[in-house]
Amino acid sequence: MAKQITRTLFFVFALLVATFAVQAQPFKAGTARRDVTPREPVPMWGYGARHDKLSEGTLDPLYADALVIQAGDKKLAIVGLDLGRSPAEASLQRIRQRIKAEAGIEHSFIAGSHTHHSPVLELADEPGKGKGRFDAALRYYREMETAIIAAILEADKKLKPAKMAVGSVQLEGFNRNRHTKLTPKPSDRELPVLRFDDQSGKPLAILVNFTAHPTMIQAMILKFSADYVGAMKSEIEKATGAHAIFMQGASGDQSVNEGPNKGYQAFGQALGKEVVKLAMNLTTQDVAQPSLQVREERFKFSPRVDLSNPMVRGMYEKAFFPELIPNYIDEYADGVRPRLTVALLNNEIALVGASGEFFSNHSIRLKERARVKQVFFLGYCNGYHQYFPTIEAVAEGGYGADNQVSPAAVGAGEQMMNTALAWIYQMLGKIKQ
Hints:
Layout: H1 2-23, E1 27-35, E2 44-45, E3 63-71, E4 74-81, H2 89-103, E5 107-112, E6 118-119, E7 124-127, E8 130-131, H3 135-157, E9 160-170, E10 175-177, E11 190-198, E12 203-210, H4 228-240, E13 243-248, E14 254-256, H5 264-279, E15 285-286, E16 292-298, H6 310-319, H7 325-331, E17 339-345, E18 349-354, E19 357-358, H8 360-369, E20 374-378, E21 387-388, H9 391-396, H10 412-427
Parallel strand pairs: 4-5, 7-8, 12-13, 18-20, 19-21
Antiparallel strand pairs: 1-3, 1-9, 2-6, 3-4, 9-11, 9-15, 10-14, 11-12, 16-17, 17-18
């Protein structure tokens, strides 16, 4: 009898210890910001018609906004950049190596907002690829890397216990499909947000995911700007006191729909007000069982354009500028190799990052099929491999679907989205790996 009581007590004690261990798993969040505006004139990203014209100052600063999340013993960095794309591969790897070594952060989504008033990021420190003519741009890359790393490391140091809430609305009138002539025209109108509060209920951070090209400033204005994204973040922060982090969606075929909000500042402020309305109506809660699962893979697709052909290369050099094209040739020497990153947070929120300009039907269909509480689709993330149109968009033709700006094989986007969906279900334990 005594032995039975002892065994029972031991079992109860073990159960209590296990329960306490689960409850004691930390869920934390921290944020930080760094200025990533070039300090010297450099070539500007986004519009081929500019060719190699140098920047002529700044309309508003460009920032790196870092959010670090700790779920149990794992950490995730989410970085929104007021840049046209995420850093090039060499820069990305240096950033990731530093944050892993110095903060134990193994996983990251580092993405550009896709503003077309930011610096070219593709040049390299080699003759004919940037060295000599564009040394200021090469100096900038190291400064940018240092700033992004500093933002992530500061956010990590500022980690504190956090509550969280997620929500979304369908936002009519803020974006439109710029590609298809067929109806209905697909547009991902979802505005999802993640809100983080400290334990007292004070807002810490609001992660915003929306889908529309930040191209509201005239191309020949050679000044840096975050476009509507900067005005949106300022509006959110003024109204809530929280740090706003913006992540662009699948905006390959999505433009801003100005409506009554003329100009990038007015549009950004109007979008910011919608974010505030949504976020401040959410009720944050403690995360009972924090968890984080992440998978990442680089794909390999046959290219649809032959950059080794001198005539093709000459066409691109004329359309852009000569030093830029050899860097794309290097990037695609082993095929087009986009990166897919998928995270499942707390077993209910999926973040899907893809290194290109995905057409909106990719994100719409993924969200329809992924049976989780919320999907965040993050474009221009962890690399940049140009446009990923849907198969039917390629069949229709037009800018963004043609091989001049969409080098990956037809169906590449669908393959990556199917992989993302399978990974989500594997992480949920509904499909065996």
